[in-house]
Amino acid sequence: MPQADDDDDKSQKNKAPPKSATSPWLTTPKPIRRLFDQFPLLTYPLNELPVRKPIERKKNTLYVFAREDDAQHGAPSFNPTCLKWQTYLKLLGVDFITTPSSNHASPTGSLPFLIPAASRPDSTMLDGIPPVPSHKIQEWASRNRSNSKSDPDNMRYEAYLSLLDHRIRSAWLHTLYLCSPNYDAVAQPLYVTTTTSSPPVRLALTSNLQAAALEELIKSSTSPVVDIEALYRESDNAFSALSELLGDGAWFFGEDEPSLFDAGVFAYIHLLCDEKLGWKENEERLGKGLREGRWKNLVEHERRIFTKYYRQS
Asked: Global pTM?
């Protein structure tokens, strides 16, 4: 609201101000206004995505949870969602590299995401190419594959996919984040220790990770209290169902080549059987049946994919 002239102020000093007038406490003082008039408000563009190694813009880059050395050699990610998409791109013959990252660096707030190769061979900038979030990687990959493989169009696909996305994932969250021995031995070194050396920040990250895991488990449950026994009983039933579905075949749904579903199953089986992660055997109930040989064909399925696509990593 513009300020009145001095003469007008004098003529109106004995009159009560209108009820609709703005309170003087809400009016910007003239000296402050003059100051801001000299420095008008500017809106800066959004920060560009970080480019660690500009020369690698010549290749498609998948940003995943991974150790630095593992990422450089294309080794499997230690995160099941990242590993699923990493494996899927390999199954389709997409040429890409992996780069270690975190959720905070992701445009969508979660990993993985993919930055397509630059349009010009000599380009070291993003050239305005938008990142591909995980829920669009399948669509992107279908346009950039080196083979003609298509994913199965099976009515049972969604039903079996829910076993991975709900029953097995729920047990994974409890095993990794809410089981203290496993959290200390596996989750903390991978997700916390490598992120910061500050004890208060590590404590905060631990609290956030465990709270997020518990919240997701409660959301997927019909009770405000997580039934741990039911959680692992359902994951065992899910593995049994997957084992029966695979049968004596090499790939799920009787396909001649592995598909996205195979990549999803591989991701969990591989990580649960990976002794290098440091699982505490007495506490790692989710992978116990795999180690005991209850679902041998699932372990053999994992070995087929690992040998063909990761053995040289």
From this structure: 0.79
